[in-house]
Please model this.
Amino acid sequence: MKATCNITLEFENNKIAEKILRSIEVDNLDFVKSKIKDKKLEAHIESKSISSLLHTMDDFLACVTVAEKVVHKS
Model:
């Protein structure tokens, strides 16, 4: 079985979205395909099981949260 999820996160502007994407790209490997469209970070996540998908989603969102905090402090 294959499980997939699409996540769209909208930020204040394109520059912030791009900084966050650059910060998290290294952790994405083959699990998450991410891109910027306008000021939105779009992510497509694929996994072999629902539990693995949930774990990947949790990791992705945690990384985005940390990156967003760092970007707003600079």
Remarks:
- Residues 3-73 form a domain with the TATA-Binding Protein fold (CATH 3.30.310.50).
- The chain has a mean pLDDT of 92.
- The chain has one domain: 3-73.
